[in-house]
């Protein structure tokens, strides 16, 4: 087949496309958002229990927060995601975490069936149902079918995972057309959503637009957001897989060749393809954007715009504290920080901090009523109990085991004041190494008379437990290996709810200065461990002294509230996409 059959203009090799890109003026989007031309947000994971979809971690929680924030700001916003017909709950049996599988029915959560669309896979037409739930200015469009299975089922390069991703991309784009929507912007959250932009490119190129123009148009209206420096989300597929699941859904021969040229030695990384299809690229913290090491097809390092994640303040701050923030002109009605918020924070006295945490303890105890710890005990903490917590997805680089490296020293910190340490986190299905690490932690705890009654592992970490611990704990511990955390949002909820933060200088925490929180650092892991224990002792001392508590809490809030603000995050995205 000759070049003219592939393209409207001859193309000798892939470098011609690069030259064409370089010749095009790099302007951002100019059209306004509207209900017909919304901001479209593509995510393979949504964690929104109120709306029936239970994700696996921070990516899904962020997606739910972003939609809610867009709604408060009256932004036309469409979130596209699979609605998985099955989900997992994690239970602790003995000292091993096991998954329980639960069927989920979208009808029970207010979704309306719209119609069905079809994609081509393995020489078959596959029927994909489109369901929708509308809110004010926003909506969730779910792509579903009975054989989807669960979130992240199979390995990242498996046929089933590719089928899920292709269904979201081609099925989701067909759903937009079905509803008469034209994306003003397509935000691709991680590489699993690449096929949504590919579907748009294919539609433009197959409907008569010059191929070069179709590529430029698609790139200009696509934002690729990378959320992780540890490429668990990185996918690599063979050309044989694409011949079964992807190429049959492409109508344009030019697009097929463009995509085929992304393969090296018969395999493709979706990160490479995502970088090529999106002109706009963002990382989720200042540090992440600076150190993310990706290269385009010409070998040039990709530049990412730093837009640090934020949280939905209404969702994650306990009600009485949220009222304080509003009544004292710290946040406005849509949770933007007021100009003089630092002055207004001075009204947060030690007495008020302690009163808020007393109410937060009630929130935590209510959450724990039906959640036994590893010993089968239902916990109920008094207002005099001091609580450290570690709550986040269980992966190796987050180091849930770090504090247990010296159980004698840990006991010596906790025992003098009768303190507790609460451990909560979700282990990825099939992660045998982290399952074994948790068992090792619990074995160590069980061997110490004090720790076995004051260290508590709570299984099936979810939204309600995250909220309860943020409200009811005194100190949050966040110690990822520096350079591996893209942002993290669990610590944001802790800071907003008046927990003191002990953390390494990584992810979004590194947007602030090391002096603004209880920093853990060192030239070796032994040095870091020693500093972690020292900072735990120091936070206990701060909580015992009213003057220190007021000073440290105000310093922490002044530094971090601008960072954790979801309204700030959304403004940053809009300013990047639609510069004034």
Computed structural class = alpha/beta
Q: How many helices in DSSP terms?
A: 22
Strand content: 15-25%
Count of spatially separate domains: 2
CATH architecture of the largest domain: 3-Layer(aba) Sandwich
The top level CATH class name of the largest domain:
Alpha Beta
Low-pLDDT parts are 1-26
Q: Would you report the number of β strands? A: 19
Task: Using the alpha-carbon principal axes, give the shape.
Answer: globular
How helical, in percent, are the residues?
25-40%
Q: List the quaternary state of the chains.
A: single chain
Topology:
Blueprint: H1 3-6, H2 14-23, E1 39-42, H3 58-72, E2 77-82, E3 86-93, E4 96-103, E5 112-121, E6 124-134, E7 138-144, H4 159-178, E8 185-189, H5 194-206, H6 211-220, E9 222-225, E10 236-238, H7 239-245, H8 253-260, E11 267-269, H9 270-277, E12 280-283, H10 286-291, E13 305-306, H11 313-316, H12 319-327, H13 341-344, H14 350-367, E14 387-391, H15 407-414, E15 420-424, H16 432-446, H17 451-454, E16 455-458, H18 463-472, E17 475-478, H19 490-496, E18 500-504, E19 518-520, H20 525-543, H21 546-564, H22 566-577
Parallel strand pairs: 1-2, 1-8, 2-7, 8-9, 9-12, 12-13, 14-15, 14-17, 15-16, 17-18, 18-19
Antiparallel strand pairs: 3-4, 5-6, 6-7, 10-11
Helix pairs in contact: 4-5, 5-6, 14-18, 18-19, 19-21
What does it look like?
The protein is α/β, with parallel strands linked by helices and 580 residues long. The chain has two domains: 3-309 and 572-577, Rossmann fold, CATH 3.40.50.2000; 313-564, 3-Layer(aba) Sandwich (Rossmann fold), CATH 3.40.50.2000. Helices cover 40% and strands 17% of the residues. It has 22 helices and 19 strands. The strands form four sheets. The protein has a nine-stranded mixed sheet, with helices on both faces. Strands 16-15-14-17-18-19 form a six-stranded parallel sheet, with helices on both faces. Strand 1 (39-42), helix 3 (58-72) and strand 2 form a beta-alpha-beta unit. The protein is globular, with a radius of gyration of 25 Å. Mean pLDDT is 92; it is low at 1-26.
């Amino acid at each position: 087949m000759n070049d003219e059959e592939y393209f409207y203009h001859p193309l000798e090799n892939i470098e011609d496309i690069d030259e064409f890109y370089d010749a095009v003026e790099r302007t951002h989007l100019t059209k306004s958002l509207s209900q017909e031309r919304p901001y479209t947000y593509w995510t393979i994971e949504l964690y929104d229990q109120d709306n029936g979809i239970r994700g696996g971690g921070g990516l899904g929680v962020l997606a739910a927060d972003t939609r809610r924030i867009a709604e408060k700001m009256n932004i036309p916003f469409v979130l596209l995601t699979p609605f998985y017909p099955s989900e997992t709950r994690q239970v602790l049996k003995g000292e091993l975490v096991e998954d329980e599988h639960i069927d989920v029915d979208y009808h029970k959560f207010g979704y309306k069936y719209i119609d069905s669309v079809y994609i081509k896979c393995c020489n078959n037409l596959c029927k994909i149902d489109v369901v929708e739930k509308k809110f004010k200015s926003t909506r969730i469009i779910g792509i579903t079918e009975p054989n989807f299975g669960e979130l992240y089922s199979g390995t990242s390069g498996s046929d089933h995972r590719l089928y899920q991703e292709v269904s979201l991309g081609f099925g989701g784009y067909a759903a937009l057309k079905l509803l008469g929507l034209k994306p003003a912007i397509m935000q691709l959250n991680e590489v699993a959503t690449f096929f949504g932009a590919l579907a748009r490119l294919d539609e433009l190129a197959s409907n008569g637009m010059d191929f070069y123009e179709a590529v430029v148009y698609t790139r200009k209206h696509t934002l690729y957001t990378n959320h992780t420096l540890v490429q668990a989300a990185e996918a690599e597929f063979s050309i044989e897989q694409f011949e079964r699941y992807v190429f049959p859904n492409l109508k344009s021969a030019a697009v097929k060749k463009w995509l085929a040229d992304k393969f090296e030695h018969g395999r493709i990384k979706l990160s490479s393809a995502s970088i090529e299809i999106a002109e706009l690229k963002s990382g989720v913290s200042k540090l992440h954007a600076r150190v993310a090491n990706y290269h385009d097809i010409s070998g040039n390092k990709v530049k990412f715009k730093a837009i640090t994640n934020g949280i939905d303040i209404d969702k994650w701050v306990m009600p009485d504290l949220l009222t304080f923030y509003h009544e004292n002109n710290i946040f406005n009605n849509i949770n933007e920080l007021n100009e003089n918020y630092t002055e207004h924070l001075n009204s947060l006295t030690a007495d008020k901090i302690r009163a808020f945490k007393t109410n937060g303890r009630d929130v935590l105890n209510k959450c724990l009523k039906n959640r036994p710890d590893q010993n089968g005990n239902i916990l109920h903490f008094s207002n005099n109990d001091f609580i450290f917590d570690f709550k986040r997805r269980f992966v190796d680089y987050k180091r849930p085991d770090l504090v247990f490296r010296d159980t004698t020293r840990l006991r010596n910190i906790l025992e003098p004041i009768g303190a507790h340490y609460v451990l909560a986190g979700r282990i990825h299905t099939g992660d045998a190494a982290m399952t074994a690490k948790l068992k090792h932690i619990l074995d160590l705890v069980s061997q110490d008379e004090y720790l076995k009654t004051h260290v508590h592992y709570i299984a099936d970490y979810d939204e309600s437990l995250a909220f309860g611990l943020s409200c009811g704990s005194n100190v949050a511990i966040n110690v990822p290996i520096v350079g591996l955390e893209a942002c993290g949002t669990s610590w944001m909820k802790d800071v907003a709810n008046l927990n003191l933060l002990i953390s390494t200088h990584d992810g979004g925490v590194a947007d602030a200065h090391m002096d603004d929180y209880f920093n853990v650092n060192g030239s070796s892991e032994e040095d870091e461990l020693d500093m972690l224990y020292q900072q735990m002792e120091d936070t206990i001392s701060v909580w015992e002294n009213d003057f220190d508590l007021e000073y440290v809490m105000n310093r922490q809030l002044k530094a971090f509230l601008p960072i954790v603000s979801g309204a700030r995050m959304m403004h940053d995205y809009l300013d990047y996409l639609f510069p004034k």
